[in-house]
Amino acid sequence: MEPDTFSFEAWSEELTECIIGNNTFCIAVFKTDGELEFANSAMRLLLGDGIPKECLLNPTFEKLINTNTDSTLIYKGFITFGNYSSINNSITASVFLKNGRILISGGTDANQLIQNNSLLHELNREVNNLQRQLIKEKRNLEETLRQLSSVNKELKEANATKDKFFSIIAHDLKNPFIALIGFTDYLKENFKSIDPDEAEHMIELMNNSSRSTYSLLEDLLTWSRSQLGKITYKPEKISLNQLWEEIELLVINQAKNKNIDIVFHDPQKVMLFCDPNMFKIILRNLVINAIKFSYPGSSVTVSAEPEKINALISVTDKGVGIDPARFENLWQIGAGSSTKGTKDESGTGLGLILCKEFVETHGGKIWVESELNVGSSFKFTIPLFVN
User: Fold this and answer.
1) Quick one: pLDDT at residue 1?
2) Rounded to an integer, what distance in angstroms lies between the CA atom of residue 34 and that of residue 99?
3) Can you give the CATH number for the domain in which 246 is found?
4) Is 22 buried (19+), middle (13-18) or exposed (0-12) by CB count in 10 A?
5) Which residues of the chain have pLDDT under 70?
6) Domain end: 81, 108, 135, which one?
7) What gap in Å lies between CA 36 and CA 166, rounded to an integer?
8) The domain that contains 72 carries what CATH number?
């Protein structure tokens, strides 16, 4: 077989096309006056859009053409292209000067490429770490914002509830005083001619109104002290019977005014481990509430039943009862309008709020069982004294 015919022209054309279109090998030819005669694709990317000779930053074009050497190779090493206001690029190049022409040729050195890739890899890793940190911080900020939003919502609800609560308090304090002023004005104007029975009845109404108002003020002061953290929890060993003797003195008159019997049932002589002051506020409020909603001539029963570590205390009346739909609202400030008692006694429900707060301070629970027109039983647990 005859060997393939070698065509230098064809090879030269292919080689020229390869050099011109190459993006890794850089080649350029300058005249010594700085005019660019030729630059392949890769070199044009390095030179950019500026004046070609001014794109040589180090060494500069002027330094190259003024190099003193007998060799046509006037420089070998790194050449930096670009401008001082943008990103610069460097290649490993050889620079030749001959016949009034400067030839620059070169590309990226393998070591330099490895180093650049290593730096890029490290930078990429740092960027990824930073991105992960930013994502984490973003999530933390979002969670903080959610918490702040929740707290803000709770504060708004608490403020709205307290505003409503104080408006109810103001209303319930105002009405008894209006009644008292009315009664005293009437007595003052008609004192000499008023019938003794009528006067007695009015005095009784004034007394009941005064006691109700005093009880409300007492609850209000106690509640405000508890909100300010001025009521300290100091449990001690004490008998239920001893506590009841003190409470009975505070509620007996209200029971007598409605002809209501109070029955105390503690057959096992329960011994409690509680804060006496808090306990008396709990039981007093529950008994007064039972009297308020009991029909005249009925009874209220206070009973105790020891369990494992707690005593179950119950206050049961035979009164108007409570609609089950209102059970949850009983323990919330301003959740619903106050219901009047069987003799039009007023109230705000603040006593029950105090009861729940103080029962929970003891680690106990409080709830109600009720049936309309049959009666209610308020029950709560309180720690027993355990030897």
Assistant:
1) 44
2) 14
3) 3.30.565.10
4) middle
5) 1-23, 86, 109-117, 157-158, 160-175, 212, 215-216, 219, 227, 333-340, 344-348
6) 108
7) 89
8) 3.30.450.20
Radius of gyration of the chain (CA): 48
Task: Please report the pLDDT score of residue 274 as a whole number.
Answer: 95
The H or E element spanning position 274 is: strand 271-274
Q: In sequence order, what are the residues at sequence separation of 6 or more whose Cβ sits closer than 8 angstroms to the Cβ of residue 247? A: 280, 283, 284, 287
The Cα-based distances of 287 to 72, 129, 273 in angstroms read 115, 66, 21
Last residue of a domain, one of 79, 108, 137: 108
Residue 134 φ/ψ, nearest 5 degrees: -65, -40
Let me know: does 304 contact 312? Beta carbons within 8 Å: yes
Provide the β-strand partners of residue 239: 271
Q: How many domains does the chain have?
A: 2
The per-residue pLDDT for 254 is: 83
Phi, psi angles (nearest 5°) of residue 263 = -110, 125
List CB contacts of 237: < 8 A, sequence separation 6 or more: 271, 272, 273, 385
Same domain, yes or no: 193 and 303: yes
Query: Alpha-carbon distance 288 to 300, whole Å?
Result: 10
- The confidence score (pLDDT) of residue 347 equals 61
- Do residues 213 and 323 both lie within one domain? yes
Alpha carbon distance 374, 314 (integer Å): 16
Contact between 183 and 205 (Cβ < 8 Å) = yes
Q: Which residues constitute the domain of residue 69?
A: 8-108
pLDDT at residue number 257: 84
For residue 323 the two structure tokens come to 């609609």
* Per-residue b or e along 112-124, where b marks 16 or more CB atoms closer than 10 Å to that residue's CB: eeeeeeeeeeeee
Cβ pair 354, 288 in contact under 8 A: no
- The per-residue pLDDT for 344 is 63
- pLDDT tens readout for residues 226-239: 767 777 889 999 99
- Say what the pTM is: 0.53
Given a contact cutoff of 8 angstroms between Cβ atoms, the answer to whether 381 and 365 are in contact is: yes
- Please state whether beta strands 261-265 and 299-306 pair in parallel, antiparallel, or not at all (unpaired): parallel
Give the contacts of 377 (CB within 8 A, at least 6 positions apart).
314, 315, 316, 317, 368, 369, 370
Please identify which residue in the block is written with the tokens 């408006």. 167
156 in any annotated domain: no
